[in-house]
Amino acid sequence: MPKFIHFALICAVFAGYGLLDSRGAFASGASEWVVSDQTRIRLISEYDGVKGHDSLKIGLQVQLAPGWKIYWRNPGDAGIPPQFNWAGSTNLQTAEVHWPRPEEFDVFGLTTWGYHDEVVYPITVSLKDKGAPLDLKLDLFFGICEQVCIPYREELSLSLNSGQGAVSGEAGLIKEFVALVPPTIGSEGSQISSAEATALGNTDFTVQAVSTSSFQKPGVIVEGKDGTYFSPESATVSADGREVEFTISAELLKKTDRIAGEEILVTIYDEGFAAEGHLRVKQ
What we know:
There is one protein chain. This protein is mainly beta. It folds into two domains: about 5-180, Thiol:disulfide interchange protein DsbD, N-terminal domain (Immunoglobulin-like, Sandwich); about 190-280, Immunoglobulin-like. Helices cover about 5% and strands about 50% of the residues. It contains two helices and 18 strands. The chain has helices at about 5-10, 170-180, and strands at about 35, 40-45, 55-65, 70-75, 85, 90-95, 105, 110-115, 120-125, 135-145, 150-160, 190-200, 205-210, 220-225, 230-235, 245-250, 265-270, 275-280. The protein is globular, with a radius of gyration of 20 Å. The two termini are about 25 Å apart.
């Protein structure tokens, strides 16, 4: 059985806390804080308006009480990532969430991926009409955990007018967390120059990576289609420190499935750097 615990199960303890519905008011470059006992959340923008911009970076800023955690796009063995619903927004073409490199947490034998204290999820938004204001409405569903897990639903709003477009006071904070988003393997700025995946059998496979820096304590997170789970078993670093090979076991959807030919998303990380990329597992 996979160690993953469905959100409905791990959050059964939320009785008595309740789901919260809150609305953030409009402010220049930032919404008002939406506050609970464990979190403060708001939307922020790198500009105080959309004048001269057809796309821009905004951020979901989350501050957490001590001991509480919120999750990465892949929460690991337990938890649920933030789910973003922009229905009701005006003049919004697309909204792409970027995920800063997460921390690893081990609790009760479960490995999870997320953030503590504070995180900003950078989001690239594009406008349908460059000359019109942008009115963002976010219906956010997420879970936070300490010894118990609590689900929240919050509504946030941020209005950026078309009469101004100067750099806001929140631009530096957004830039700080953009810098923590792993680049694509092999791209400019990535310390991991290449990676490939090779099947060892029906379910086991290796991921080999080459770095421009020496690996110290490398790790890997593997994602695949829904319902597929991956367990890294070992990591072997070459004598010169520039290459690493991970051995990984997959739990596939069906017993007849084979890992060869599957497309996976790998995030390879070490002290001070990380990179991610889509790989197809070779036979």
